[in-house]
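User: Could you walk me through two proteins back to back? I'd like the raw sequence and the structure tokens for each, with a short line separating them so I can tell where one ends and the next begins.

Assistant: Of course. Protein one, sequence then structure:
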Amino acid sequence: MKKIIMLALGAGLFLGSCSKDFLDVSSTRYLSKSDMDKISDYSTHLKDATLYGLYAYNIKAFAGGTTGHDDFGQKGFDIYTDMLSGDMNLNSNIYGWYSNIANFSEMENYASNPNYKPWRFYYFMIRSTNQIIGSLAGEDGTKIPESNKDKVVLAEAKAIRAYMYYNLVNMYTLGYDANQKVLPIYKTATLINQPSKPTKEVYEFMVSDLKESMELFESANATETRIDRITVDYMVTKGILAYVYASQGDAASLVESARLSKELIDSGNYPLATKEGLLKGFNKTSENPNWLWGGRITTQTDLDLVSWWGQVDVFTYSYAGVGDTKGMSKELYESIKDEDVRKKQFVFDKVTDNNGETESFGDNAYIPAGKFYASTGKFHLKQRIIESDYVFMRIEEMYLLNAEVNARLGNDADAKQVLKDMLDIRLGDTSFVDGLSGDKLVDEILHQTSIELWGEGKIYAAVKRNKKSFTYGSNHLSHPKQTFNYDDPRLTFKVPQSELLNNPVYND
């Protein structure tokens, strides 16, 4: 049955749309308010066309300005970084997507689309937040709106702007180097070209934005978790700031990261996922109370094969479903204890659906068919128009981050306790953690981060901020069993050719 579907797709949709994803610059030079109004039409549950159009754009196909089927907003770049980390394998190379990421050939070419797409996406999102900030807080962004509603809109815009810079820092720098100049800073929508700034200034800008955002939420009495959890609220902002501090890495910043992540843990708003929840599919924000932030997707969003689900989920009518699967590193899978419920999130070779129908995807595939799957969970009812949500942040991240920064500070007891609090649900016996300390404790926390957050776009940043190495699995198509240092230039995105050609002051 799978072969028939594969042939049909190959002759129709896929061969017709998978040619080289040429840059589409003219139609995406700017994101005007009218553009944002049109974008928001894809998600009718969003109320404010200007601000909430940003959330719609974050899940939109081709948001990176190309026609590539790996171009669909933040979750598309999560796949990029997960593949570079070595935790996510490209199991086959049927249609070619991601193959030149996995073998580094496009990573080393500053004119390639994988280097262009994230840069284009994040900077156009930044420009759009600047339009909102300018309209509410004046040209210099310092005016405080009078109404609570406008304060909240401004708080969200500043937090989103910082989040975009946070992703740029992770992807385009080798790690925190205060004096390295890579990223231009745009504080207003009227700035056309800006030179690259020292990384220290970028971090100062992110921290300032996030602190001001939290103050605005507090001033508007809007510090409670939002029921729908599909927007950046006060709690999500706190989580982003915890990540920024952890990435900056000095002792004072690590202390702040530990404090913020602990506040989120202790808030009581986000229970840890149950054993059953860890195997429920990660497909609906409303069914995952441990999620801080997700992207709600309905038929009106109009996503299909060009989506994160299309690339990863075998129960979606798209690439993974016809054999172009992405899976876990063999060695990472084998490192999961047999009694750990998370081992059931991955399937070695054959996947059985809710009707008992079984399909084989080859040996050593380690497909996440028990973690991420469309709500139907049936092969003959494959999800064609995406109705499964995206996860952007969940409380388990804060447990792992808190454990990590405490371990880096030498607070081993606190680090071990919070790690065990999370692992208790997953594998019961956590006594192996007790004997760990120092670098071994940090390494185990990163190991658990790889297991827990596989496929969620988090481990790449964790390894880089800890200055560790990436080791690829023996089932990796291009670089099996090879180890790469965190600052290997092949694993870091290049400032794209378009920026160097079109920004005459970049190197000033």
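----
Protein two, same layout:
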Amino acid sequence: MTTQQSMCRLTIGGCMRPVLEKARLRILIVGGGIAGSTLAALLHQHGEYPVVVERGGKNGASGYVLGLYPLGARVLHGLGMYVRYQEISRKMERYILHNSTGKVLKEFSLTEFNDAYGDIRGVDRGLLLALLRSSIPEENIFYNATVQHIQNNPYGAVVTFSDGSAQEFDLVVGADGIHSDVRTMIFQQKDYAYKTTGWGGWGAWRSLEGFDGATYRELWADGWFVGIYPVHNKLAVFMGGNKSKLLQFTAAEFVEEIRKQLPVGILQSALQSLEGLESAHFWDLEDCRATRWFSKRVVLLGDSATALLPTAGIGASMAMDSASALADELSRTDADYLSLALEKYVKRQKKRAESAQKNARFLARIMFQDSLPASMARNYIVRLYSLKGLLKGVIKIIN
């Protein structure tokens, strides 16, 4: 809790009441990640007083690197944050693919894309979160708090929090990620499905010194891959592969394993002096699609509704785009017509999110190859693709 919330010596629900008394719509956002923080910032800009509960601490781990497309960046324009966003991010000017020997497979210039649609930029997720949260009043965010139960009624939802307190809301927004507790509480298992790739990996940081700050690089091999992604003042390095192989190693051991297979060069250099390998979190590369996005007074947003694989780098941008659409619909309705506003939000965003998810799945099918013959066929096919061909579904959304 913040200092102000601690001083009131009340429960989570009790500390929310002074905020909610000012609210036109009593909105609870569950999850203070990119989707939830974007929605809260936009609603506050519209004169609303949403409250946010976030399971993590205020200064806790805030994630990894994000590639932000203009689809998401334009939301920052609307919030008056774009100039600051440029200062904490890096423009991506080229994308280079390598084969398992380190040889350049294909280089994609992003000049045409950036000129036509706007910049793709790399940003530290923690810095982007801090930027979004900077416009949300401190007393509106409750850290180290979770939702234990939701009684979802046609005209309101009663929420019980982790400290046992309860509060009624006009709307609950589940923005709590791919493994959403809100979604599990409200919807049946038949209403959503996970899709796994069988791959995963670890992310780490290192110094950016000596690396091109405008180039993303990925090496695709048979059963493993490496990616390096520059952000404001450091380099993100991701090491991944087939889980059946990776889970035999720790993150540090896997780094040593793939370093042996790489020739001396920029990719091998990127695997040296990595920070935080001992505590690196293993990520399952999976996604999830919900067939229903809302029920009565509970609605899903971002990864809770449609989670994307990181292969297209569009997940954060899609979450921000959906948050913008939801904020727009909520700003033009009242409690009596919330259901209609939620229907309009789903109509605007569900197909868009699924199109982006489809594109990310398409790239995963190309990228994640376990055998040498399959990886050689993949390398041949990739040479035939243009950037527009690889990102067809994403470009369709942006246009």
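Residues 65-124+195-285+363-398 form a domain with the D-Amino Acid Oxidase; Chain A, domain 2 fold (CATH 3.30.9.30).

Let me know if you want the two compared in more detail.
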